[in-house]
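User: Structure with PRP, tokens only please.
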Amino acid sequence: MSVHILNHPLLQHKLCILRDKETGTRDFRTTVSEVAMLMCYEATRDLTTRPVTVETPVGTAHCQAIAGKKIAVVPILRAGLGMVDGVLSLIPSAKVGHIGLYRDPDTLEPVEYYCKMPPDIAERDILIVDPMLATGGSASAAIQFMKNYGCKNIKMMNILAAPEGVKRLEEDHPDVEFYVAALDDHLIALGYIVPGLGDAGDRIFGTK
Ligand code: PRP
Ligand code: URA
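Assistant:
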């Protein structure tokens, strides 16, 4: 698996806002969306382009346009929803598939509760989004889900990751490209990333 740690200064600055326990719901949600947009910019560097010619007001320009590859962004509910708008602001024609997973509080194993995909999902390049990669259980299950649908080109985008989660993805899905804005120190027994940012879903939706 290729792990891309995106250490762009704008991303690192926005991580300070997300990690700060004093950041309120509105700013947290806006910043998650902005981080997702910046990460999407990096994660789409290898999109293929095709030559096009356009007439400018003063002449002919030979340009490169996206080659028309179909993309689907797949948030892991619920926290992943906070990253969708940021991605769609750069790729407005992408379709959105949803996977509902929550972690069982005792076992930390992912439990599926919802799934809805575009009909042509197997033909699309997949960008799975979730702010947090902790044990890696949710991400690994979501990637396997997409593989079961026949998807071939899958990328995973998390804002923060614990080393345990990265190791799990490397073992389970060595073929997947993985993008993260910061690799944190460790996990605690409750499954929280340290130093992390707390519970991403609760902070995005104001549920705690
Ligand atoms: C969080 C997070 C990931 C998962 C990561 O979701 O958004 O989906 O935990 O943990 P893992 O790597 O150990 O699987 P959570 O289960 O809290 O659900 P929520 O998004 O509904 O809050
Ligand atoms: N999920 C979260 O929302 N936060 C963590 O620290 C770990 C998993």
